Amino acid sequence: MTGKEFRTRAGAAVKRCLPSTRRTALWMIKITVAVSFCIMLLGHFGVIEWISEALSPVFVHFGLPGEAALAYVSGYFVNMYSAIAAAVTLDLGPRAMTILGVMALCSHNMIVESAVQHRTGSSTVRVVLVRTLSGIILAYLLNMILPGSVSAAVEAAAETSEPEFGAELLEWLKNTGVLVPKMLIIIFALNMLQSLMSEFGIIRAVSRALRPVMHVFGLSSRCAVLWIIANTLGLAYGAAAMIDEASTGKLRKEDIDGLNMHIGISHSNLEDVILLSSVGAVWWVLLLSRWAWAMILVWGYRLEVYIKKKYCIFVSSERKV
Questions:
Q1: Which of 14, 94, 246, 318 is most buried, taking the most CB atoms under 10 A from its CB?
Q2: Which residues fall within 8 angstroms of residue 68, CB to CB, at 6 or more apart?
Q3: What b-and-e string marks burial along 269-278, b requiring 16 or more CB atoms within 10 Å of the CB?
Q4: What is the Cα–Cα distance from 114 to 101, expressed in whole angstroms?
Q5: Tens-place pLDDT, residues 41-78
Q6: Is the pLDDT of residue 246 over 80?
Q7: DSSP summary character for residue 108
Q8: How far apart are CA 313 and CA 209, in angstroms?
Q9: Does the pLDDT value for residue 162 go beyond 70?
Q10: Residue 206: is it exposed, middle or buried by C-beta count within 10 angstroms (0-12/13-18/19+)?
């Protein structure tokens, strides 16, 4: 291939992906800004703290002090940064920080990321239930399995004066002003990279190389590139690539659902795992526990699909008779 041919094909590939990328990027920004603004209001009026207090008695069953509920709820509605920020104010050892980290990794940024997975074709209700219940079940199991004692309740944090709404709004505007350009750059760069990789056959090569790994997880090899994107950058930043790939029709409905089930509880395995490890969590437990659980979920889903297909064939043959 000559340099001119390469440039021509690369330019055409980039141009083809720009319209869909632009639409997805604008959608992502709208929903992210709207959700973050609503969460800021809920935080200001004490709704998030009220939910945390209501959940705190349950957390003893996970080997965590009741105050850890605030970190979990913050992460559930916002992101891992808010969960970690709340968690570091508690005197949690490695065991408790690991359990809390697994819970938050399974079900953080729920509103935005569930919207992304819905756009790829999966049921929002199923996504939310799978991610929420997975975090709860894994925390309960880890509390029984991990060596060490259950964390004692810590002293409540010292009371601080409630910030004024104007200051909170200004802080939200500053954070949003940083987040939106970052999202645009990453989303456009990712989608253009994916388009180039598809044009020059790199996606097919990656899919073949990762076929054994995908098979162990119960996933289609066609999902390999999206699996890499979700595991490295996460669902929010990989949204455009995932939505664009799902819209091409190259992936079957069961492929998309299986992938979303897996990456729903196991994504952002670079930055978030490193951040949690830096505050005391055990990185290999964070990673392996969710990969193992994701594998169980996906193979269970594949069994469900198989039974449904067999049942439909049986019912159809019975009607013909």
A1: 246
A2: 56, 59, 62, 87, 90, 92, 96, 100
A3: beebbebbbe
A4: 19
A5: 888 888 888 988 888 899 989 999 988 998 999 999 98
A6: no
A7: S
A8: 35
A9: no
A10: middle
Look up tokens 């975090």; give the residue. Answer: 135
Would you say 107 and 290 are in contact if contact means Cβ atoms under 8 Å apart?
no
Give the integer Cα–Cα distance in Å for 189 and 47.
Answer: 37
Distances (CA, A) of 97 to 100, 103, 138, 289: 5, 10, 14, 14
The C-alpha atoms of residue 134 and residue 138 are separated, in whole angstroms, by: 6
* End-to-end Cα, the chain, rounded Å: 59
Neighbour tally for 113: CB within 10 Å = 25
Separation between Cα atoms, residue 25 and residue 279, nearest integer Å: 32
Residue 247 falls in which region: left (phi positive, over 0), alpha (psi -120 to 50) or beta: alpha
CA distance 287 to 264: 13
What pTM value is reported for the model?
A: 0.82
- Residue 150's SS3 state is coil
Do 294 and 265 contact (CB within 8 A), yes or no? yes
Measured CA distances, 74 to 112, 123, 141, 215, 307 (Å):
14, 24, 22, 35, 39
Angle CA 307–292–94, to nearest 5: 150
Q: Is the dihedral of CA 113, 119, 122, 124 positive or negative?
A: positive
Please, which residues have CB within 8 angstroms of residue 118's CB and are 6 or more apart in sequence? 124, 127
